[in-house]
Amino acid sequence: MATVVELISYPVKGCAGIPAAEAELTPAGLRHDRSFMVVGTDGVFRSQRKDPKLAVIRPEVSADGTRLTLSAPGVDPLTFGIDPGTGTADRAEVEMFGTPYRAVDQGAEAAGWLSEVLGAPSRLVRVPPEHGRVTDGLTPGTSGFADSSAVHVLSRASLDDLNARITAAGRAPLPMSRFRPNLVVDGWTEPGTEDRARRLTVGGCALGFTKLAVRCAVTLVDQRTGGKAGPEPLRTLASYRRVPEGGVAFGSKFSVVKTGKVAVGDAFHVTDWGTD
After folding, report:
1. Which residue ranges of the chain lie beneath pLDDT 70?
2. CB contact set of 87 (below 8 Å; sequence gap of 6+)
3. Residue 157 is inside which H or E element, if any?
């Protein structure tokens, strides 16, 4: 039986993941997942592709959702009240992958802290209440500031298969954190099983397949140190996981069809399988 063995949210896009034993699954994914985003003075989002130090910034949202704590090695942590943007405050104009969005700026204190850690002028913004983003794929949905769909699923079988290929070439295996999944599944014996699942239930929730997760240079960043450590996994993935859309795929993206609670240990039940 396939079960959830890890649940990870990423409150600030590009920053460290926060594991949990259980979580609420909202229409936009795990609660608070990619609710915040770091942008430059031009409003364009910062990513580990160019700012790998994002990986060592650990964001934690308080239990009541009103405060955010940012911590990183070598600097004092910062805790501040979240501006949810429910008032009439002006919206910041931001951009992600060339698409414009509106966001709620989180103030000078957060901006100063992030600018110091990243070594470049930065602002922290939040998804506004009126955020009406529609994501594409086989099962359209919504998300906060995730690259695309709300939930990224990856199985241990897929990672074990990749690491077997990497080690056979004489290189060191990689941890799951390189791929920044939301739900890690164990119990499937065949690698890539998540690619064929079109509808599934987990806990009290339901997910619909949107697309394969096409991988980028973020997978080359050591998530513990914030340093680039390539060429793996892209070198090995290119030998067997190329996709027609361009690039290489590893893991799958899903939209949230039914919200609810999900917990480590919950069974993954696939109710509809694809043929490709």
Report:
1. 88, 276
2. none
3. helix 156-168
